[in-house]
Structure formats: structure tokens, C-alpha cells
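Dear Dr. K.,

Following up on our conversation at the group meeting, I've run the structure prediction for Probable transcriptional regulatory protein M9R32_06765 from Paenisporosarcina quisquiliarum. I'm pasting the input sequence below exactly as I used it, so you can double-check it against your construct before we proceed with anything downstream. Let me know if the numbering doesn't match what you have in your notebook.
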Amino acid sequence: MGRKWNNIKEKKASKDSNTSRIYAKFGREIYVAAKQGEPDPESNRALKVVLERAKTYSVPKTIIDRAIEKAKGGSEENYDELRYEGFGPSGSMVIVETLTNNVNRTASDVRAAFGKNGGNMGVSGSVAYMFDATAVIGIEGKSADEVFELLVEADVDVRDVLEEEESVIVYAEPDQFHAVQEAFKSVGITEFTVAELTMLAQNDITLEADAQAQFEKMIDAIEDLEDVQQVYHNVDLGE
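The predicted C-alpha cells came back this morning:
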């Protein structure tokens, strides 16, 4: 894989040092997942994925329970899941995933965040073809060879297994997310350093200093929008 997940997650964590923001995003995502299916992670795969992700970001149980109870209570609050694609400076590409209860507001806000920072919105499909939907699961305490052998024995297909700093990170097709986790759980591993369904660029680019500064300003503006859940891009921001 071109990008090391631990570096990506560290940068995301530093930007999300305002924990109230990341908790609010997870609360919204948990509510939507619970409302779209059964409010039980054992019978609602989408909810189970969100809860696994929330666990790796240390989202408090009170936030999780409140979102699920809101869904159980039959709240009329509805959100649309929308994806926007766009371009930043020097050939950079960006995917923005949102949950919104006001489509016009969100589209306007995302377009403005691009436009005011040297970027522009693209049409649907203009960027996504350069990214791969990917399951990313990380653990500690084993080597990459041990993890690879474990997954082979469990008959789980993966794209790659890499040692990244203190973790071993597994990259797999999205439909293998649960299979990878179950393989780990079968040998007593229940804690994950990362458990994400994400979009990884097929090829990263490096920007000149001025372009990178402008790009980071654009990404910050997009990520600060209330309706934005995830932002993916193809820029190597360095260590």
C-alpha cells in the first residue's frame, strides 16, 4: 500500500483533538446505522462496523448508548448519506463523505470550502475511480508473518499485511472486514488499533510547500464542516 495507516490516523487524531467534534460525528453515524436496521449490532452489520470504529477512537459508551436509544425511540430526524468529489491544487484529489439533514446547505458549504481554498468541486465519479474502498484492521502483539499465516488458515483473502510502527495492519476488501476480525477473535485478539472502512488512493502525490499549505488549509475547511464525516485524498503529507 502506498500510505501507512498509522501516519494517516495520527494526523486525523491530531486534527480531532477537539473530542467533542469526533464524538458528535460518531453519534450521528451510529444513530443513522441503528435507525436504518435493527438497533442491535449482532443483527445489524453496518452498526457493528461503526461501533468497532468508535471503539478505536475511544468514543464513550454514553455517546453510543444515547445515539442507539435515540434510534430506538423512533426519532423523526433523518440524514442523507452524500458523497462529493473534487480537486485541490496541483492535481490533488479529494472525496468528502457527509451525513446531512439539509442537502442544499451541505452542497453549498462543501463547494465553498473547495472554492475559497484553491479547489473546485467535480462531478460524481470524477475522482472516486482513483481510490479503492478498503478495510483496514490493525492489531498489536504479533508479527506480519504470524498474522498472514493466521489469515491464510482462516481462509480470509487480504490485499496486504504490513508492520507499521507498533502495529500490524491488514488491508483487505471491504466485504472481508468482519472475516478478518473474526479470525483475530478466534485466537483471543479482541482489541484493534484501527478498524476502518476507508477509501485509499491508488497513487499518492507529493506537493510543493506552497501547494501543500494551501491544500491543508482546504482540507481543514472541509473537515470543519458540521455535516462532513470523512475526507479522503491522494496527497502524501509526510511524516
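Two things stood out to me. The mean pLDDT is 89. The two ends are 16 Å apart (CA to CA).

Best regards,
J.T.
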